[in-house]
Design a protein that fits this description.
Layout: E1 3-9, E2 23-28, E3 31-35, H1 41-47, E4 55-59, H2 65-68, H3 71-77, E5 87-91, H4 95-105, E6 114-118, E7 123-127, E8 131-137, E9 145-151, H5 160-165, H6 172-178, E10 183-184, E11 190-191, H7 193-196, E12 205-209, H8 217-222, E13 227-231, H9 239-245, H10 250-259, E14 264-268, H11 279-289, E15 293-295, E16 301-303
Parallel strand pairs: 3-4, 4-5, 5-6, 12-13, 13-14, 14-15
Antiparallel strand pairs: 1-2, 1-16, 2-3, 7-8, 8-9, 9-12, 10-11
Amino acid sequence: MNLEAFILGTGGMMPLPNRNLSSVLLRRNGELFLFDCGEGTQVALRKLNLKWKKITTIFISHTHADHVTGLPGIMMLSSQVERDDPLYIIGPPKIKEYIEANRRILDMFINYEIIVKEIKEPGIVYSSGEFNVRAFKLFHSKPCMGYTLEENKRPGIFFPEKALKCGVPRGPLWSQLQSGQAVELENSKIVQPGDVMGSERMGRKFSFVTDTSPVPSIVGNVKNSDLLICEGMFSEELTESARDKKHLTAVQAASIARDSDVGKLGLIHYSPRYTERDLKVLLSEAQSIFPKSFLTRELQTIDIPYRD
């Protein structure tokens, strides 16, 4: 089952000719989830030929303009295709007011259901039978949320030789054991899944963090992420500016990645002061702390494999 992240925009504050505002699309088994929706998001979706009508849920970190100005276009665009399923938009307080005001003032033609959920308390904000999306508080100049998508644990590895040794013949009983069900043999012997399978294995975990001071609680929330997409807006020489504006430096983002044992760190939400050439400074500083850091780039696709 594939899990992929698509980088639709990497910039903070304002779009540049070669840099859209921050937005990341996550695709899991054909289902699409959007994290933030900056200006230019729908252009990037078209360039990547992604089916926007399959976006089931949009998760918004906060209501600063550079994270939400792409929403009106996405909402109107979805009315141009056949869409039967509702679109969920989840975010902090004010997101509902923002969406309703845009719909009213722009007199939008919307031919599908839009369900807006404002997050009152951190915790699970979206759940399926296979994974959960959690929201956790960040510390910015207005209410801001980080998000993790974490899959359920997977069954352990099935060992055919153990099954045969226990007297379980090849066939349907093997499938039952692999699905977690005990089986009864003809001699009335009960064989448990643990008799023929290894320990449970972790599912995958994706985390999205942007626009925040480096509060300690971030580490616990993103711990063991396979991929952490995290803002690294400034270089170390602008640490004071980052503190005043409640943003992260690349070094602070890398420190979070190191302390939370993530698989990879993708920096995002770059300050417009940095040209493409200047971004290598952010990368160098991050890699000095966490070597598995990389710069996210426009229209980049990142595969998120199982670790085992």
